[in-house]
Recover the amino acids of this structure.
């Protein structure tokens, strides 16, 4: 109530910020009116003079102070350039487009917010693309390069040509990064004052520059000074933990292992499926006893409720996407019992009962961490005659025992060490292949995470739903999925370089964003 009264009299934080910037808007409009007297070359001369002055500044703090000083006049120059372009025809993606845009006062405020490294909330149609020209022009004067990040190649090319008309009119250069460009072309685009592109293209270029380039001359990017991210909530929140990965052919591959162990893992998966169906059947029977069809009152025993909860939780660990489980959990009472059982199991610091419940299964699935782990029961199922099949020896201790043993012949010692190393590698390969196959069966669903086309497994982008032709999961996972689907198993890849979008954009000296839902994601943005 008090908050409502305060907001009623002094306004929200955004309203107070807008009110504070009104004098700046008035100053920009006054300067723009004066600029209307200048010829076109007069505006370009201002750009050239500012670029020359700012290029000599090396300190970030000094540069920030100077940009703040010239901001009103620089914004006025952009607004005046837009006015002069009105009525002219611009070619955008091969189509003629008449320029009819001049920034409104509210867009000037949005431009200031972006220059200040904030997130501007503007709905579709409110002119986010035009708003960005104001801070982009101002920061491009520094000569350090400005990156404008869009969600796809089409928008990057469109905005680069569309808004590029303003920048080029004022004497700045504009580039655009597209997925099929060669390194030399990319380098030219990054050397422009302003560069448009997608988050993936910027991120992958960084990985190639810092993970694969052998010489500085092979790198294409020239720094990370200022970036404006369009649809910033999608890129920095929704796709925040999505890693960009560059992979290459592995030096040592174990492709044949996936086909070899596929029948065992497939059998294990089917056995667990039958086991979970049995648990569901038992839970269903107990639920019917608790809720008779004739509607008669039955005293609900706590022990029975606990058993129902444990049975449902076992199925959640063993087969979380089970249709039978989803159907039972539609009843709120069943969901409550399962959640209650889960809480009780996790409340114990030693997790003794939790591990006991997991051991009722052959493997446990954790969709959140994207893991599927064999239990002792599962390991015994796969290797009933070899209890140590999934136990890797301590190589340091084993090698020390050989050196400290009675054998004095160096040749025989070397043979013993070589044999030990080969056994270790063989066992490690087996464990890795089975682990990846288990993930493929438990966590990767056909026509959801991937599709099969032309005898190939093609990844589906989880955010856009588009097919990612040419992309492959690393660390043998793609080979495991290929084995699962019975298609040709291609050579295994290894990760050469990796970075998440959040970590990449944290490298910029200044970062701003635009979206239509900034307020609802405010807390997440503050964490970034």
């Amino acid at each position: 109530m008090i908050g409502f009264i305060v907001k009623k009299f002094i306004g929200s934080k955004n309203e107070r910020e807008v009110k504070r910037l009104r004098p700046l808007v008035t100053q920009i409009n006054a300067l723009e009116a004066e600029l209307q007297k200048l010829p076109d070359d007069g505006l370009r001369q201002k750009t050239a003079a500012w670029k020359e002055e700012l290029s000599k500044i090396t300190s970030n703090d000094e540069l920030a102070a100077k940009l703040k000083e010239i901001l009103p006049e620089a914004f006025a120059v952009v607004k005046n350039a837009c006015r002069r372009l009105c009525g002219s025809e611009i070619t955008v993606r091969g189509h003629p487009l008449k320029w009819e845009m001049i920034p409104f006062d509210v867009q000037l405020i949005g431009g200031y917010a972006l220059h200040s490294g904030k997130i501007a909330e503007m709905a579709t149609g409110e002119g986010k693309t035009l708003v960005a020209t104001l801070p982009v022009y101002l920061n491009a004067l520094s000569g350090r390069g400005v990156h404008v990040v869009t969600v796809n190649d089409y928008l990057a090319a469109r905005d680069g040509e569309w808004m590029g008309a303003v920048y080029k009119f004022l004497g700045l250069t504009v580039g655009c990064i597209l997925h099929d460009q060669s390194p030399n072309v990319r380098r030219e685009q990054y050397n422009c004052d302003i560069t448009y592109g997608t988050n993936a293209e910027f991120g992958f270029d960084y990985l190639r520059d810092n993970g694969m380039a052998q010489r500085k001359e092979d790198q294409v990017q020239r720094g990370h000074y200022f970036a404006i991210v369009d649809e910033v909530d999608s890129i920095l929140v929704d796709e925040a933990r999505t890693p960009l990965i560059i992979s290459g052919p592995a030096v040592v591959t174990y492709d044949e292992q996936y086909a070899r162990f596929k029948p065992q893992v497939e059998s294990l998966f089917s056995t667990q499926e039958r086991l979970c169906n049995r648990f569901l059947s038992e839970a269903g029977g107990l639920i019917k006893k608790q809720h008779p069809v004739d509607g008669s009152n039955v005293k609900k025993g706590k022990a029975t409720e606990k058993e129902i909860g444990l049975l449902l939780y076992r199925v959640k660990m063993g087969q979380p996407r089970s249709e039978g489980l989803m159907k039972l959990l539609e009843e709120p009472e069943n969901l409550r019992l399962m959640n209650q059982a889960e809480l009780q199991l996790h409340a114990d610091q030693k997790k003794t009962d939790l591990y006991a419940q997991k051991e009722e299964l052959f493997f446990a699935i954790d969709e959140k961490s994207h893991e599927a782990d064999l239990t002792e029961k599962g390991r015994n199922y796969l290797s009933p005659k070899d209890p140590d099949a999934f136990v890797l020896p301590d190589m340091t201790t084993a090698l020390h025992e050989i050196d400290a043993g009675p054998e004095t012949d160096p040749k025989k010692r070397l043979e013993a060490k070589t044999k030990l190393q080969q056994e270790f590698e063989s066992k490690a390969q087996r464990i890795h292949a089975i682990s990846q196959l288990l993930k493929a069966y438990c966590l990767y669903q056909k026509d959801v995470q991937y599709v099969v086309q032309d005898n190939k497994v093609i990844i589906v982008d989880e955010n856009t739903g588009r097919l990612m032709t040419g992309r492959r999961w690393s660390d043998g996972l793609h080979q495991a999925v290929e084995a699962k689907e019975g298609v040709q198993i291609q050579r295994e890849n290894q990760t050469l370089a990796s970075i998440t979008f959040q970590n990449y954009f944290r490298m910029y000296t200044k970062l701003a964003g635009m979206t239509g839902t900034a307020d609802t994601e405010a807390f997440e943005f503050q964490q970034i």
